[in-house]
Model the fold of this input.
Amino acid sequence: MAITSLSERLVLPGIALSLGMVFLTMLCGRFFCGWVCPLGTAVDIAGAFKKKHRSIGDGNNAAVRKIKFYILGIMVLAAIFGKEIAWIFDPIVIAARFVSLNLVPGLTFLMNAAFIILIRDWHAGGAVSDLYHALKPTFLGVKVYYFAHSGIIFLFFAAICSTVMILQRFWCRALCPLGALYACLARWAPLRRTIKECMKCNRCKGHCRMGAIRDDLGYEQGECILCMDCIYDCPTHLTSFNFLLPGKAKRIAGEEGQRAADLPKISRRNFLLFILGSISLLEYKFISNALSQKSTVLRPPAALEEDDFIKRCIRCGNCMRVCPTNALHPAMLQAGPEGIWTPQLLPEVGYCEYKCTLCGRACPTGAISPLTPQEKLTTKLGLALVDRSTCLPWALNKECLVCQEHCPTFNKAIKLDTSSGHPARPYVDEKLCVGCGICQNKCPVTPIRAIRVSEKGAYRVKASL
Done:
């Protein structure tokens, strides 16, 4: 939310929740990474399959931790130049995209297949059949069996989880920019780890999943995710976390040799690296803008204007998950390098349901504007065009009325030319067509449909400050 707001120079409604998390982190420390973050949970689950995790010394730990601060700095620089790239590394977005485009479709497909096998092959009726028919209109009724490029999205998620084989919680420790932000905020939190009597058994250091406990058995507060493993592992049970007053916290920190978090020092070398990085990002901005102008993808209904849409969209996959016809899919390079994994409408896979407004309601950042059902009826996604060289009535004088019959608009946007003695020939009334894509989806001509929807005339919303 913070990076998106900075890149678009506006305040998003969700920033209030972000500020709430900032306050809680300053009070309790980096609890989000240990208790809330779904990607952190997935990384821990992956780590459970490795029997023994190695620990590294303070020097190597400090070097590893610094990487995430550089990533956060690059994201902020990109946002200053008007480019929102937080979606690449944001853990919430990564987890949401995996759930929307991999987990939900996979579970839906498997559950549907399991019910069919139980009922059809194993003749399980009664309660099983009743449960299946109860779920079919809701959870099992949405066609989400396939998403374009879902394999790449899964591999990206799996690669992050597999980093645990390098080092326990390597993603959280070294790469996560949200973790870097929380590490900065957690340094002075009053909730702190205290030890009344230490046996120097080093068990807590060996088991610390973030490597937050140092060789001298003090700890880096900004790296501690409050997993409480050190409490459970302590043989004397004298390790605890307590809210301490500022003065007392400062004294205890001094006794333990508490050090500041491993933030990158702003040396001359680091400053020059950031300046060079900013120049590269500026050049990337112009190149990607030039490529994006050639984009011809169809966007969801009432999406923001293309530049603002790409900045505002966080690629969470919510709109694709809720689409009842499976029409929305993640783009790759069709919308330029900046548009990777943004939603696009693929009419040959699914069409935009005429009265459906789910995608706008599911979008968390307003990249897709919410519409009322009445507004949706006249919102243009594009314009359908008949290819007369392949259309059966036009090219071969064969009778075909499929596109006209399926057109959902009032007074039919697809008209029929019945002049002279040939079969009725379809053509599109540009004033009535909303570009829903059902005509392209149902057209029997293959492999390239005889009627196709272009982005021409699409209604795009201007971003408001």
The mean pLDDT is 87. The longest strand covers residues 191-195.
